[in-house]
Amino acid sequence: MQNSNKNNSRNLQSRFYKILRRKVFFSNELKKALLVAYYEAQKNQTCVNLNLLLYGLLSQPDSLAYRLFLTALSKYQNNTSLNSKLIKTKIQKINKQNLNDKGLKELSIEVLNENKKTPWLMPEVKQTIITSINLALQSKKKIVVVTTKNVFFDLLSNELIRDSIRKLID
What we know:
Keywords: Plastid. Helix 2 (28-44) packs across helix 6 (104-112) and helix 4 packs antiparallel against helix 5 (80-98). The chain has a single domain, classed as Double Clp-N motif, CATH 1.10.1780. It has a two-stranded parallel sheet with strand order 1-2. With 170 residues, it is mainly α. Helix content is 71%, strand content 5%.
């Protein structure tokens, strides 16, 4: 009887450790979005807030968040080419000035490392990233990639972000 109890506890422990061994990575688009938001905040001498994070997400033309936003915008205003071209050119002009790909690997390590202080991130942004990671971890995969789509959908749950998107559209 004691052997079966020991085996059960070992099985539970091994299942627990398997869950902990899962790896979480940021997609390259999400890393670039965080860098764009960081450089924009640095230029304005502020911290990265939710609006700057949204700006960073929408500034990546290859990201899922950008494509979802343009699809929703075109459905909303019934004009696909004009809106997407205007937004794309405005964002690309700003990106040419701000984006450096050099710090991508260090950035993901800094954000995920809880021991390291990241004073350039507002608490709401950290909470959004943590919520996005938890959302991505709901899948059963061993290696989980947090994409811009995860963060974008979490941002849409915030009323201030929805208001700023309404202002951007109108």
